[in-house]
Each structure stands twice: as structure tokens, then as C-alpha cells.
Amino acid sequence: MSTPVSLETVGRVPKALLHDHLDGGLRPATVVDIAGQVGYDDLPETDPEELATWFRTRSHSGSLERYLEPFSHTVAVMQTPDALYRVARECVEDLAADAVVYAEVRFAPELHIEGGLSFDEVTDAVLAGFADGELDAAAAGREITVRCLVTAMRHAALSREIAELAIRFRDKGVVGFDIAGAEAGYPPSRHLDAFEYMRDHNARFTIHAGEAFGLPSIHEAIAFCGADRLGHGVRITDDITVDPEDPSGTVRLGRLAAILRDKRVPLELCPSSNVQTGAVDSIAEHPFDLLARARLRVTVNTDNRLMSDTTMSKEMLVLAETFGYGWADLQRFTVNAMKSAFIPFDQRVQIIEEVIKPQYAALID
């Protein structure tokens, strides 16, 4: 008898996460606690449960710009080494508790220097928290590998400095670079020097593109900037058609969609977040299944666990319930993510063959 797909059973299988923002995944109680310690008095709620509800409801805004506004509160309590360390360590503990075995967690160092820290000091604190979080998880019997992506804000002019930071810390836990923030008016090509610097140093990077803006953003990220992965990328559906007269539902890819498929460019899809930002209207209308059927390399991600009140288990379960996925499908999406990670090939293969596949094999008919 096959094991049913439920929150409990999904919660036990290994997962790989590529798109998770550190400042979007704090524990509500931690936000309240640190705010009290540092004298931050602007929280909208001081009860952790009420604060969690506030973040969730405020983030369900229908636009990326409004979705980003609540981050001012989480960033405000992440301005000291102790706070950054604590948030990073708790992040790893929370992911491990959800059976995430590999994660790349991203953050923007430029948002955490209001207290006088340097980019290097910010990054040192976060990486120390990740390292100790891994030790905590291992002691609890949950092995997890967490690596870091440093992010530059696309509306600012610090991307080259952040790219240089990524290279300085490439052997200390930073495995890549990213740009994030409002897309409209801030195309990826504004940061070409940063991407060229990464390529010059044989380093990897992903770009937020095709979330709140359409095909031009995706085209620039791939054709001009040379992105290894796309953060979100849901708007690639503007280049995909399904023949309504064809009972088999034949999917036709335009040239941009086809090159993403043919080059196996991973899409870091974040279903719940995409609904909150208005990128899609509902999970049922999310293009995840269309993209999966078209054989693009889709991956499942959380984006911001606090803002979306989500986990990897919840994201995988809602997709399974909406689109009828079984264990073989969930394994494929997990392997997709692990194949697309920015760690060395042999490490990716080891996690796939020794951790992911054996545990899913017991569940697949």
C-alpha cells in the first residue's frame, strides 16, 4: 500500500532549497526579543502570534513593492553581529526540522550596516550562525548543509562590491551572488559589471527575474548577464502557449522559453510567495505544472518563510494537492534543485544518491 502524501509524510522526506531569504524567515518571537534588546519600538505588534499574523496578512499585498515593505522590521533587528548570528543559526535549525538536507540562503549585506558593521563583519556573523546551526542539527540527528548567496539590491549601486564580497568569501561558505528588489525600472543589465566580475572569477550567480516584470527581464538575465539560475521566472509563461483546440494540451515554447528548457536553466519557483506578490492569482493558476510538463527545470522554494507562513513541506504539499503529484514527482523536483545547487558536482551527486533517492525509493510505487 502506497504511503499517502500528507503534511506529516512530506515533512519526513529530504528536501533541497535554493531560494530562501534570511530576512524573510525569522521566528516572530525572535523579532520581538531582539527588538526589545536593541530598543526598536516600531514593531506593529509585540505579541509573537499577532506579529506573525501581521506579517502574513500585510505581505499578501498583490504587488512585489508592497510585499517588500514589511521587511523594514526584520532588517531593523538584524543590525548587530549577535542578532545576525542568532537569526542565521535559528534559520538552519528551522530548515533542518523540516527535513531540508541542503539549502542556499541569501541575504543582502548592504541592508545590515546601519549599526556600523562592514560587509565582511556582516557576512562573518551570518556564516558563523550557519555553521553552528549545522552542528546543532547534526547533534539532533538531522544532517543539513547550508550555503550562502550574497545579494545586491537592484535599485542601489553596490552590486560590484557585493560581487567582490562573494569572491572573498567563496571558500568560507558563500557559493554565489544574486540581485533582488523591485524589477520595474531596474533591469539586470544595470549590474553588468558585477556579473562580469563573477564570470571572470568562474563563480556562479542567480538573478531575480520574471517575477513582477515580464520577458525582457528574463531575456536580459540570460542573454546579457549570463545567469546560471532564475529567481522565480514565472513570467516565462508569456512565451508559452497551450493550444485550446488540442485535446492533448500540446505546449508550444517560444524561443526564450525553449532556450531556458534546452540549456536547463533552473527556475527557483516560490508558489505561495508568487500568489502574495500578485505574480499569479492563485496556486491553482500557478504555472508550476505547465512548466513541469514542458520539461523546464522547475524547483520548489519558500522565498520568505515568515512572510508566507510557509515551509518547504507546505509548499510541496500544496503543489501535490493542487496538481495531483505523487512521490516520484516530488523526488524529481528535489533532484532538480540539488542538480542546480552551486556546490561542486561531486557533492551534489553524493546528496542525491546517498540521501535523496534512497528515502524516496521507499515511497515510490
UniProtKB/TrEMBL annotation:
Its cofactor is Zn(2+). InterPro entries: A_deaminase (IPR028893), A_deaminase_dom (IPR001365), Ado/ade_deaminase (IPR006330), Metal_Hydrolase (IPR032466). Its EC number is 3.5.4.4. Zn(2+) binds at residues 19, 21, 208, 303. One of its GO terms (molecular function) is zinc ion binding. Signal peptide: none annotated. It catalyses: adenosine + H2O + H(+) = inosine + NH4(+); 2'-deoxyadenosine + H2O + H(+) = 2'-deoxyinosine + NH4(+). GO terms for biological process: adenosine catabolic process; hypoxanthine salvage; inosine biosynthetic process; nucleotide metabolic process; purine ribonucleoside monophosphate biosynthetic process. Pfam families: A_deaminase. Residues 14-357 form the Adenosine deaminase domain. The keyword Zinc applies. Binds 1 zinc ion per subunit. The record marks 232 as: Important for catalytic activity. Substrate binds at residues 21, 23, 181. Keywords: Hydrolase, Metal-binding, Nucleotide metabolism, Zinc. Catalyzes the hydrolytic deamination of adenosine and 2-deoxyadenosine. Belongs to the metallo-dependent hydrolases superfamily. Adenosine and AMP deaminases family. Adenosine deaminase subfamily. This is Adenosine deaminase. It comes from Mycolicibacter heraklionensis. The lineage of its organism: Bacteria, Bacillati, Actinomycetota, Actinomycetes, Mycobacteriales. The gene is add.
